[in-house]
Amino acid sequence: VVFPAFAKLDQNPKNMQAFTNNAIRSLLLCILPVMFLLIVFVPEIINLVYTNKWLPARTSFYLFAPYSAITCFISLAGALINATGHSKITLRLHWLWTLLCVTSAYLFSLRLGFFGIAFGTLIGSIPVAIWSINHCRKNYGVKIKAFLGPILLALIPIGVGLILKKILVINSVWMLFMCISFAVILHFMALFLTPYRNIFFFIWKQYA
């Protein structure tokens, strides 16, 4: 989705830096609350959607949530690197990512079973995410502080989710959906009370 905007700004380093940092912030502002809410409501999701037979795999669900968030960031970094004419770097990055995830998932699965697959894919993706952050920081002016604000804002849906679990009996998929939706809505209401609300307008203008 962001590839056209990255390509459009390739010859404008200042705007590219601003857009890249805002793209990272907007990505984190959208995926972190969902990731944390999935972690908060894992027992209810398993019980109501997958049934109690899947309860032994609960720990694996906790690990797949951050893996999904890391995957989103690596994909964003890949789009940025591709758009600036370095597709070979992206190819190597994805080969390394696949190799690390498959190898670590296989090795850990021998000892830990299904949990080992979840743990291995998460462990295998972390070095790639660190390399992506470092590469984007050195070459595209990505600032580490771009990650901090969205992480702090994501504490809101965590708190709301924990409170809802405390005061409500979540015994249906509908009730579960309403709790998660309520927490997400409050997150975005809080977001639009902060300067972060301008990020989405800024990104929208790059496509105009």
Question: What's this entry about, in short?
Answer:
With 208 residues, this protein is mainly α.
> Which residues sit in consecutive blocks of at least 5 with pLDDT less than 50?
none
Round the mean pLDDT to the nearest integer and report it: 84
Major sheet description: none
Structural class: mainly alpha
Overall description:
This protein has 208 residues and is mainly alpha-helical. The chain has 10 helices and no strands. The protein has helices at 3-8, 13-40, 42-50, 58-83, 87-112, 114-140, 145-153, 155-167, 173-191, 197-207. Helix 4 (58-83) runs parallel beside helix 6. The chain is flat. The chain starts with a helix and ends with a helix.
Question: How is the topology of this model organized?
Answer:
Layout: H1 3-8, H2 13-40, H3 42-50, H4 58-83, H5 87-112, H6 114-140, H7 145-153, H8 155-167, H9 173-191, H10 197-207
List keywords for this structure.
84% helix
